Write a sequence for this structure.
């Protein structure tokens, strides 16, 4: 007897049709590109911004011009629990459910540890790590009720390898790994997968702000000899959304810089 493994058919054109996604920090960089990629694949996307309405309007405009999925912007500071609660409530009221959460919002406040202030430490931990607690806390009950959810957090190569001047950022990005694996265990039998993507050095404003010689030195060490593109991080996110049997994982998108 032959065993046939049937692969569920997915619509190859709009595989995320009917799905509602939240992307935090969608006004620029990697978050903006993830929002566009999800919309192009048919999702209804809610992108959050903190203080930059003009940038997120641009993201919405691109999506509208392309005639891709629906895009809606909501202001939310992920480090403030009231904001993420309001965000989730508004999304459910407007679109009926939340299927996908992309925890992307993140900041840097680079300084050697000797000089780093408690404020710089707290600011980065509050946004990058507690922000993920807040946003996930706000959506998890909806996902549990519907027995479906995709939670994907954007980490960084810096959480894997460390980086000079980034003890706060590295700690926050390493912390996401423990969060991801633990929540993956708690929700694996409930239709929810929890994964992470670890970008290397990607061509965004955040990386462009690095001292030129530091950046050049890093690029020279990348086996692919270039910065990554935000859309290349979005490719990994799309994969994780559709990968039903993958949970508790972190995919590196770094041109081979850290293996
Ligand atoms: N490697 C080795 N030594 C370095 C160094 C580096 N990358 N950067 C600075 N130093 C040295 C300095 O030359 C100086 O040495 P001396 O005391 O012998 O002169 C010493 O360290 C202290 O330097 P500073 O007083 O300038 O240190 P600072 O506390 O002001 O911090 C810095 C400087 C913020 C670390 C700055 O060098 C910097 O911005 N570096 C880049 C940090 C970085 O990689 N950021 C990544 C941003 S992108 C991102 O985070 C996205 C992602 O996920 C990948």
């Amino acid at each position: 007897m032959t065993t046939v493994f049937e692969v569920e058919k997915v619509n190859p054109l709009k595989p995320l049709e009917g799905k509602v996604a939240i992307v935090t920090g969608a006004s620029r960089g990697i978050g903006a590109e993830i929002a566009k990629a999800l919309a192009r694949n048919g999702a209804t996307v809610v992108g959050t911004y903190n203080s930059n309405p003009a940038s997120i309007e641009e993201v919405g405009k691109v999506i509208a011009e392309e005639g891709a999925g629906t895009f809606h912007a909501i202001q939310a500071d992920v480090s403030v629990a009231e904001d993420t609660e309001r965000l989730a409530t508004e999304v459910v009221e407007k679109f009926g459910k939340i299927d996908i959460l992309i925890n992307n919002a993140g900041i840097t406040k680079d300084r050697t540890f000797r000089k780093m202030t408690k404020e710089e430490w707290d600011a980065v931990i509050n946004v990058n790590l507690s922000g993920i607690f807040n946003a996930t806390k706000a959506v998890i009950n909806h996902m549990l009720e519907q027995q479906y959810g995709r939670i994907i957090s954007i980490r960084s190569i810096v959480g894997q390898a460390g980086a000079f001047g980034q003890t706060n950022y590295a700690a926050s990005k390493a912390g996401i790994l423990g969060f991801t694996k633990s929540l993956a265990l708690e929700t694996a039998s409930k239709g929810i997968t929890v994964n992470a993507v670890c970008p290397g050095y990607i061509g965004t404003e955040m990386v462009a702000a690095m001292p030129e010689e530091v950046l050049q030195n890093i690029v020279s060490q990348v086996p692919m000899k270039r910065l990554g593109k935000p859309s290349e991080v979005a490719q990994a996110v799309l994969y994780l959304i559709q990968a039903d049997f993958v949970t508790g994982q972190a995919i590196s998108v770094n041109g081979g810089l850290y293996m």
